[in-house]
Specification:
It is built from six helices and eleven strands. The chain is of the alpha/beta class and 245 residues long. The strands form four sheets. Strands 5-4-1-8-9 form a five-stranded parallel sheet. The chain has a two-stranded antiparallel sheet with strand order 2-3. It comes from Calicophoron daubneyi (Rumen fluke).
Length: 245
C-alpha cells in the first residue's frame, strides 16, 4: 500500500480504536471470579454509586472540592458487609474517586472492589454501568444509584434512590441498610423480582419504611396483648370440694 494512502488509513484506524476504548469498559470482565470454599463469598453483590449516594461533592473557593460523608455511612457499610460483596462503581475518574474511597474505607474492610469511569460504557453522552461485565450472576446483583441512565442496560437490577444534596437530617442510608438486609436475610433467589415490585413506586425506600413501621407497631401491639393476658390472675380450684375459688 502506498505510504501516502496507508498512513491516513492507519491513523484513522487508531482514532477509531481510541474512541472505542473511551466508549467501552477497560475489560469485559471487571471483577475476578468468585472465591471458592473455604473462603467466604457473600451471596449477593451490591453495586454503589458514591457521588450523591454515599458522599456529596462540595466546591468552595478557598478549599476547592471536598466530599461530605452521608449520615450513618459507616454504620451502613458495617451492617451490609456480611451479606453483600460491596462494589463501589462511580462515574468519577480514578484520580478523583480513588482518594474519596480511601478515606471512606481506608483498610478495605467493607468495600471489596472499586470501579471508576474507565469501567463504564459511554453512550449518547451518558456513562452507563454495564452489570453484565461484573462476572457475577445478575439474579443476585443490585445497583443503588440516583441516576436512572446509569442502569439503562440492566434496569431490573437497579434501585433508584433520591439524590442526596448534603442535608444533615438525612436518614436514607439507615432505611436502605434495613431494606437490603431484609432482601439478603430472606435468601431471595432472584433479587430482580423484588425490585420489580418496588420500582412501581416513586420512592421505594419511603414505602419500605412505612410498611416496616406498620409491622413494628403490629408486633408491639401483639406483645402488649400477650403481656396483658399473662398478667391476668389465674383462677384457683380447690380439689377437695371441687369448688372454684
Amino acid at each position: 500500500m502506498p505510504l501516502v494512502i496507508g498512513y491516513p488509513r492507519r491513523a484513522l484506524s487508531n482514532i477509531v480504536d481510541f474512541n472505542q476504548s473511551i466508549k467501552d469498559p477497560v475489560s469485559e470482565k471487571l471483577l475476578p471470579d468468585p472465591v471458592e470454599p473455604p473462603y467466604y463469598q457473600p451471596p449477593y453483590t451490591l453495586v454503589l454509586e458514591i457521588n450523591d449516594v454515599l458522599v456529596h461533592p462540595d466546591w468552595k473557593f478557598r478549599s476547592g472540592w471536598r466530599f461530605k460523608k452521608r449520615p450513618a455511612l459507616e454504620l451502613f457499610l458495617q451492617q451490609l458487609s456480611p451479606y453483600y460483596e460491596v462494589v463501589a462503581f462511580t462515574n468519577e475518574s480514578a484520580m478523583t474517586g480513588g482518594p474519596v474511597l480511601m478515606q471512606m474505607d481506608p483498610q478495605g474492610q467493607y468495600i471489596h472492589y472499586r470501579l471508576f469511569r474507565e469501567a463504564t460504557r459511554y453512550r449518547n453522552g451518558k456513562h452507563i454501568k454495564d452489570l453484565s461485565c461484573l462476572n457475577r450472576d445478575l439474579s443476585r446483583v443490585i445497583l443503588v444509584d440516583w441516576d436512572p441512565d446509569a442502569a439503562t442496560l440492566q434496569p431490573r437490577n437497579a434501585l433508584i434512590v433520591k439524590r442526596w444534596e448534603g442535608e444533615e437530617s438525612d436518614r436514607e442510608l439507615i432505611d436502605l441498610a434495613a431494606f437490603l438486609r431484609m432482601l439478603a436475610m430472606g435468601n431471595v433467589e432472584d433479587i430482580r423480582l423484588v425490585l420489580d415490585y418496588y420500582r412501581e413506586f416513586d420512592d421505594p425506600l419511603a414505602l419500605f419504611r412505612e410498611r416496616h413501621e406498620q409491622l413494628m407497631e403490629e408486633q408491639a401491639k401483639r406483645k402488649e396483648e400477650k403481656e396483658k393476658l399473662a398478667s391476668r390472675p389465674k383462677p384457683r380450684f380447690s380439689f377437695s370440694g371441687m369448688t372454684r375459688t
